[in-house]
Amino acid sequence: MTAEHDVSAGRFSLELPTEPEQLAVLRSELRPWLRAHGLDERTAQDVLVATGEAASNAIEHPRDPRNQVFRVEGQVADGQLVIRVSDSGRWRQPSLPSERGRGLPFMRKLVSDVEVVESDGGTAVVLRQALPARAASR
């Protein structure tokens, strides 16, 4: 695990192995950073759940990953928290219809904005959550 958190600079960085048990580590590291930026308990929980869903995708779905790790990076920009969950693979398309594949719509209900960015270096899910006015003006 590699972790760097600088609340005063609004930065969060965490690199974890692509193992499901690492989701608990992610939550315990991210929760205080979210709270330090003025999110109320419910909004912080929504961001944690959305980030966990994105991390679950990074653990479960990458095709041909170069590394067996995923990264979570956060920053404060333009009055919002921006959290980027990335892996070094490409997303696998489901081979059969199933009850799965509802992660993106679920994340979109929890945070202000969700964007999927695919590149040669891997796949990232970028989550954005508006900060409360008092926290955004810091």
Q: Supply Rg.
A: 15 Å
Distance between the termini: 30 Å
Q: What is the topology, as strand order, of the major beta sheet?
A: 1-2-4-5-8-7
Largest sheet entry? 6 strands, antiparallel
The CATH architecture designation is 2-Layer Sandwich
Number of strands: 8
Structural class, judged by helices and strands? alpha+beta
Using the alpha-carbon principal axes, give the shape: globular
Features:
two-stranded antiparallel sheet, 138 residues, six-stranded antiparallel sheet, Heat Shock Protein 90
Describe the secondary structure blueprint for this structure:
Elements: E1 2-6, E2 11-17, H1 22-36, H2 41-60, E3 62-63, E4 69-77, E5 80-87, E6 90-91, H3 103-110, E7 113-119, E8 122-130, H4 133-136
Antiparallel strand pairs: 1-2, 2-4, 3-6, 4-5, 5-8, 7-8
Helix pairs in contact: 1-2, 2-3
Short description:
34% of the residues lie in helices and 36% in strands.
Walkthrough of the structure:
It is built from four helices and eight strands. It has helices spanning 22-36, 41-60, 103-110, 133-136, and strands at residues 2-6, 11-17, 62-63, 69-77, 80-87, 90-91, 113-119, 122-130. α1 (22-36) packs antiparallel against α2 and α2 (41-60) packs antiparallel against α3 (103-110). The longest helix has 20 residues, at 41-60. The mean pLDDT is 85.
